[in-house]
Amino acid sequence: MRVYLVIMDETEEAGVALRFAARRAVRTGGTLHLLALVPRQQFVAFGGIQATIEEEARLRAEELVTAAAGSVASENGLSPTISVRRGDGAQVVRDYLAEHREVSALVLGAAASGVPGPLVSHFVANAGQLACPVYVVPGGMSDAELDRLS
User: Where are the alpha helices (DSSP H) in 29-142?
Assistant: First the structure.
């Protein structure tokens, strides 16, 4: 079974990547893993404040990935595996891929304009070192184009 890993955040391109991956999963009889990243917070002198900031970021990420999973379930009938991890984005994704050898493809969304984000830049530059293909979905694609190509 094909497993597509989508990195979720609040950007439009993450939504485009999710739509593409969900459609591919349906067409190939596969499934989805959704991973939300919680970046490490800058050091704050008062530990209680830093803990609160980190907890709020984790809760926001959990809400985001849970909402995305619900959307995928209602639109495509898939029940994605969801995960929220804290740390440096690229390293967290690499660790996730190492732990989940069943992942068939990493699906990232690229911004419709401007420079690529840090994950797209990192994984495109290092794609040859991964155990799975990397799909980079252009963020400016319409739903109709995504449906036609996925």
Answer: 47-76, 89-99, 118-125
